[in-house]
TrEMBL record:
Cellular compartment(s): Cell membrane
Sample GO molecular function, one term: transmembrane transporter activity
Species: Mycolicibacterium vanbaalenii
Gene Ontology cellular-component terms listed: plasma membrane
CDD domains: MFS
Lineage, uppermost ranks: Bacteria, Bacillati, Actinomycetota, Actinomycetes, Mycobacteriales
Protein name as catalogued: Putative sulfoacetate transporter SauU
A Pfam family: MFS_1
Keywords recorded for this protein, A-Z: Cell membrane, Membrane, Transmembrane, Transmembrane helix
Membrane topology: Multi-pass membrane protein
Gene3D superfamilies: MFS general substrate transporter like domains (1.20.1250.20)
């Protein structure tokens, strides 16, 4: 029971992180009024969040290897609470942007730190499922921002709503301090302090492990499509290009969350029972994403409602699919550098998402703004990312399998040598 209590406490911190991540998205109109900012300027908040999150992953992983999960979760919660508190009371746009960057930095360290708890507290058979549960249950934070946070914002105003979120972050800090331990034996420092040169060598070593790169390309190929759809271009695409109402578009985003949660459980069970088939599952998810987008984009006009539902459901499976990348990192990396490896994996999908957001924006602007035809061209950028990810998966999978086979052969030789030695005595 204790592992589940510790995991649930860490999960609460991640739920609060997702809440912090999504509050600005549901309060966009209020933010425009408060900071007297145009929609395009407010969009920089989203881009800034992704830039900070992706850019901080490797440093966050190194810190995680050095100081452990508990310290990083507390630090992340403190950063996010501080940023939200500044947002609650400032009316300066530069201060708000800086506060949002601080929130993104705290968010960046939280997820991989909670994931790092899982292999310490659960059996290897349980780890894939608990990893999936961490990712999908964390999305409850998005529900908190869309319902209770928005209700408080409407009833009590900006400052009370954001201060309440900051208070929730403080509560999570207290619970983490009281409940969470890095491992059953207590605090584990898995890496000693290193010089800059040693740090760079360590990062290079982790990246050169084929299992790390396999996780990176897995995360890249599965996660970016649904992330870009949910964070930036999905609602404009559904309402302007596909002709849906705002309410219908919101319903489809709700369907996306339900699909991700449902498929996440199935992906976790499958990868736990069939670890040797994980890459096949990932390739199938990528292929299904590419196929459903091809069908939708090939249509000369707006897609029927049922096909849009299929599109949203299929791309939403990419979220749980990206979690398999962390499982690859765990399988092919020693515990001492697991945080760094998980940070590298987590960069894959967010770097791809950032590039696609920017690239689509440039195409939409070049083609005269948001329209059915311009979106049709812009979404085709996805095929370049899928191609790169699939090639990367196939190459690194082959290398990872060869390395694993060499390690198994070495263990067999060492075992045979040990038996020969006993027989000679």
């Amino acid at each position: 029971m204790r592992p589940w209590i510790i995991w649930a406490t860490g999960l609460l911190a991640y739920i609060v992180a997702v809440l912090d991540r999504t509050t600005l998205g549901v309060s966009g109109l209020a933010a425009a009024d408060r900071f007297n900012a145009s929609p395009s300027l407010l969009a920089t908040f989203v881009v800034l969040q992704v830039v900070v999150y992706a850019g901080a992953q490797v440093p966050a992983g190194l810190l995680l290897d050095r100081f452990g999960s508990k310290a990083l979760i507390v630090a992340g919660a403190a950063l996010m609470a501080s940023g939200q508190l500044v947002l609650a009371f400032t009316e300066s746009l530069p201060a708000a942007i800086a506060a949002r960057a601080v929130v993104g930095l705290g968010d960046a360290v939280t997820f991989i730190s909670v994931l790092r708890l899982v292999p310490h507290w659960f059996t290897p058979r349980q780890v894939p499922l608990v990893t999936q549960l961490t990712g999908i249950c964390g999305q409850l934070g998005q529900v908190l921002s869309a319902v209770p946070f928005l209700a408080v914002l409407s009833a009590a105003g900006w400052s009370v709503a954001y201060a309440s979120v900051a208070a929730l972050g403080v509560l999570s800090i207290v619970l983490i301090m009281l409940v969470v331990k890095d491992a059953p034996e207590g605090h584990v420092v898995t890496a000693e302090a290193m010089s800059v040169r040693q740090t760079l060598i360590s990062v290079r070593t982790v990246w050169l492990r084929p299992g790390t790169r396999l996780g990176f390309f897995t995360h890249m190929g599965t996660q970016f499509s649904v992330t870009v759809f949910a964070l930036m271009w999905g609602v404009p695409y559904l309402t302007v290009a596909q002709g849906l109402s705002a309410a219908a578009a919101g319903t489809l985003l709700t369907v996306s969350v339900v699909a991700a949660i449902s498929s996440g459980v199935l992906v976790g069970i499958f990868t736990g029972r069939h670890p040797q088939r994980r890459s096949r599952l990932v390739l199938a998810i990528i292929a299904s994403n590419a196929l459903v987008w091809t069908v939708v984009l090939a249509l000369p006009g707006p897609a029927p409602a049922w096909l849009l539902v299929v599109l949203v459901v299929v791309i939403s499976v990419g979220g749980p699919g990206s979690m398999v990348g962390f499982d690859f990192a765990r399988t092919f990396n020693p515990t001492a550098t697991l945080g760094t490896a998980q940070g590298m994996v987590n960069m894959g999908g967010f770097l791809a998402s950032l590039l696609l957001m920017q690239g689509m924006g440039l195409i939409l602007e070049a083609r005269g703004g948001i329209s059915f035809d311009s979106f049709r061209v812009a979404w085709t950028l996805q095929y370049a990312v899928w191609t790169l990810a699939v090639v990367g998966i196939l190459i690194t999978r082959s290398k990872a399998r060869k390395l694993l086979q060499q390690q198994n052969d070495q263990l067999l030789l060492e075992g045979a040598g040990s038996l020969d030695g006993q027989g000679s005595r």
